[in-house]
Every structure is written in C-alpha cells, then in structure tokens.
Amino acid sequence: MKRAMKCTPWAAEYFKEKRQLSVHSCYKHVVNLCAKERILALHLESSAMTPLSLGVPLREESFARLSLAAKERKHVEIEETRLWLGEVLWDLGELKVWNPVMTERLKLWEAELLVEELKNFLLENGKTRGGLSDAAFQRESQPEDTWLTALLREQVRQIEEGSLEEMEALTAAASSMVGQGMGLTPSGDDFLTGMLLAFSAWKGFPKEKWALFSDMLCQRQKETNDISRQYLMSAVRREFGEKYHRLMAAVPDRRSVREQLWDIMETGHSSGIDTLNGLSAGLCLICKEYGRK
Description:
- The protein has about 290 residues and is α+β, with helices and mostly antiparallel strands.
- It has 11 helices and 9 strands.
- The chain has helices spanning about 10-15, 60-75, 110-125, 145-160, 165-175, 185-200, 205-220, 225-235, 240-250, 255-265, 270-290; strands at about 5, 20-25, 30-35, 40-45, 55, 75-80, 80-85, 90, 95.
- A 9-stranded mixed beta sheet has the order 8-7-6-2-3-4-5-1-9.
- Strand 2 (about 20-25) and strand 3 (about 30-35) form a beta hairpin.
- Helix 4 (about 145-160) runs antiparallel to helix 5.
- The radius of gyration is 20 Å and the shape is globular.
C-alpha cells in the first residue's frame, strides 16, 4: 500500500504551492499549524480524521521527532506532501483528500432510534467522563457532579425546554454555552458542535433557522480559545470528524451505533460525551418539532 497524507479539500488546494506555516502548539499526538485564518492539526494518518486534520503516514517515533523539531523551530514548510523542518525533509507520499462535510440525512424514525440509543448510552456511561455527563437526559444534579457539571446541566435544561418554533429564544439560551468549561475544547463548545451535527443530519432543517443559530456562533466565536473556535466554525460549515460520519452511517443498525458511541466516548477527556449530549439535545428538539403528534 502506498503511503499517503490525508487532508481536507481546502488543505489540498492550499498546499499546491510551497507555504511556510507557523507552529501554534505541540502536543504528544498533534502539531497544530497556523494557515491563514485556519488551524491545521498534523497527526498520524492512523488516527481518526477531523475537519482540521493533516494525517501523515509516519511511525510514532518519527512523528515524535517531527513534533520536537516543530516545537523548537516554530515553523514548518510544506508543499503538497513534502514537509521541511530546517534541513530535514519528510516525503509523505501521495495526497488523499477526505471530505468532512456531513452528507448523511436521517429520517424521523432514524432520529428517534438514535435518541433512544443515545439516552441508554449516556445514562449508563456519561457520569464516568465528567464534563456534561448525562445532562441531555438527566436534568437533576447528581452527587458526583462538579460545580461546572451542575452549571452545565442547568444550561442544557434551558435549551431543551426551548423549541425550534421559537428559534430566537433557543439560540439565546444556547449562546450561554460558548466557551463554558475547561480543556482544549470546552464542554459548552463540544455541546454546540453536537447540536449543529444534529441539525446538519436532519434533511428538513430550515435554512433560516440554521442561519440564525450559526450566526450566533460566528458572533460569539471570540469567547472561546483558538482550537475550539476552529472546530465550532467547522461545524458551522457542516464539517465534522470521521467518527461522527461513521455514527450517522451506522444508523439504523443498533449494534453498529453502539460500537460508534463507544469509539466517540474515547475522544478527549470528555469531548466525546459532551458532543453526544449536544447531538442528543438537537435530535430531541427535532423529534419534538417534527415527531408524531
């Protein structure tokens, strides 16, 4: 099998010419690069793709050396699939484009099935991960809640008591979630990403309501950190990670859905659980609006 660097269509176009990118931040498994107004996340090709991904076909030890060199030099030069750090060149093989735009569309009965599976999963496993825990289905504070989880539960309750018919009020309630929580992607931002995932996956979601909700996020995007803002703005463009594409494609197979939920739960410290809570809230609003009367 030929080696290949996986990236989004935007990145593929951007790298046709040689570019020098500044290093935003380095972590054990990710090197974040600044490219104009976007951040690109350089990681191993074997990891699940995200809307920010540049998946490179390197061994872990090679990626560790690359990460260390990037941290020391503060910049990376890249042209198509050739990457330079000073005098060191990595040839990353062919270019493989991965499109993060959500194209899966749920029918009403599929949305209801997914809500049922999400409810069972979050009530069983949410509290083990902190963050929003199982807030989409358990509104009362729990003994093991942190103060932040208790606060987020109340915000989720206000959102779920809203309706798509009164989108302005719902959007106002959701706006309080931006930047709320700790970590690289705060729980509130992950929750909002999950709501946008639900709205994207619902074929009949009205364009004017999408515009109202997404405009709110665009206006308040400065209230969160650089990395989280990039994921939120990706969701506004209907771009989501590979794991969420797999989840939507798995419906209506309950067993496959359960497998994908377990995989998503492993994302970050609580990011997976927080996004699933947002997905649940969004789907519940859709089912309340369009479900059987």
